[in-house]
Fold this protein.
Amino acid sequence: MKSQWNDDDAKRAVEAYGAEGVNEDIALRVYTTRLIGRDPMLVLHGGGNTSVKTRGADDLGHEHDVIAVKGSGADMADMEPWGLPAVKLGPLREMRALDSLSDEAMVNVQRLNLLNASAPNPSVETLLHAFLPHKFVDHTHAAAVLSLVDQPGGDALAREVYDGRMGIVPYIAPGFDLAKAAAEVFDQKPDVEGLILHKHGIFTFGDTARDAYERMIEMVSLAESRLRQGRPVVFQAGQLPPALAPAAEIAPVLRGACAIHHPGQEPTRFIAEFRTGPEILDYVNGAELASYSQRGVVTPDHIIRTKNKPLVVPVPEAGQLDGFAQAVQAAVETFVAEYDVYFTRENEAAGGTKTKLDPMPRVILVPGLGLFGLGRSAKDAAIAGDLAENTVRVVTDAEAIGRYDPLPESDLFALEYWSLEQAKLKGQVAKPLTGQVAVVTGAGAIGTATAKALAGDGAAVAVFDIDGDAATDAARAVKGLGVACDVTNPGDVSRAFAAVCERFGGVDILVSNAGAAWQGRIGDVPDEVLRKSFELNFFAHQTVAREAVRIMLKQGTGGALLFNISKQAVNPGQNFGPYGLPKAATMLLMRQYALDYGADGIRSNGVNADRIRSGLLTGEMIAARSKARGLSETDYMSGNLLHAEVTAEDVAQAFLALAKARKTTGHVETVDGGNIAAALR
């Protein structure tokens, strides 16, 4: 591991933050915190924290000795001064004299001593930072250090590697007791350069930001050097069938098996993100996977994101998907039953006060293919995937030099069910589409507005468009997936949905929106034009709907097919037959899907919009249509009962409403400002 410290960058940070009134200590603390946070071998998703002891003034102008420490919600990789709330140091240090202190009382004291009452909660390890005398303190969950200490004799191995330069702290859950124990270890040998927290992580410290940071790099590098002495081949490979089902085919099966069903309500779904690579494959293909993968998390902080153990499923053999699905269902049921036993046992020991989390896995290991991270959102799934990859690395290195041996399950319940995390959970409210995956075809005005509406209500969104750049741009706006796809090409459609399954695990909502408007008097229109319009405005809807339904049936959790039809389907316009005829067929297609798949919980509905400014209804076309009707463009666009122009956002809200309408199918929603001639009933 190499230091990323740069004198010029450090100087620029001091100058830039100084111009904003931030003192040099905080500026340098921000700079090195970012260096640490941007290295995934040191920190992942909230793991670790940093601090600096400095001076700060309250609103009355009184100066105090304070500790500025990473706060809840701050990302070390993109740290800003606000993410280092300043706490009065004196009262914190006085707490060391106490015999005991609850987590709630500790948080309360920390908040009472904030200089800014609106600042985020200081880290749960603030007292550990405060009890140490050094100006700068860094804490990480470095992968190499975890590989050392997650051994049966990990503390002895750490002593061998560091040869007295680091204090060794036995495992204690984060909080007041750990802070006191760490301070006592330091007091016994105050010349150490840092602390190794057994089966947890590493602290380093110094009088300058650079000293603390570069000591972290040096100590982690020593661990890496020791790990390089391990066995070159760590896992003996197990037997695999000659042909495997691809990840995109099994993702909906896994995702469906992990959904939680509620009678009369929408299932609780999870997003599933696929990961693979040589290191992951060596791990999941190991003959002893059922042993080393089930020993627990590499550091206690991960349990909140990943649970203690991953789900291991059988090898997915090509052509045997039905058998694989049955085996997965059985594996999930076993996982849930074992989690329930674990919770009941540990909750009773804790006084029976905890509220059980959902029992579903957050990581799934698939021999032959790789792993999936699961989460209620795409972000949570990605975090679980990152932590799973980190686990693969740590366990591999640990097994290379010995035997991976993390904390026992009984020590981890307190963190998974930490009272402060429980309080957060009780206040969380999921959005209506949280956990659902939506595919929107067409990245024009309506498609982009619909993607934003669905994402705003919690869905993970993929956007397909024949223009790959347009799809990417529309998806980027909602932190989704953009895929270049010609919806008239069945091969393109299959590949696009496969990409969605690998990224999100499946699909729950399809908004089949892509289209284009061809004009002409029906008796004069060449067959080629009419066929081209039918390809895009009818057959493409069938192609994407068929692929979406195939995936929905694998998931077994229902779904929603939503078609952008048009008022032309029931109220054709003069010289608009090439567009209206396939749209009329699409309306019947929508109803056929409602008939044929209602028993599977798949709803099928459509939106009939009229006169929406978009790539389909261009300025040129608006001019032509308004002229054909003898109207001004303004009167043409607002030519409805409400005398109001209908926008792409109005159409998007109709699609959103139908996506959430659990007991509506075979329905056409009109979004046209009122057009009696286009009314269906």
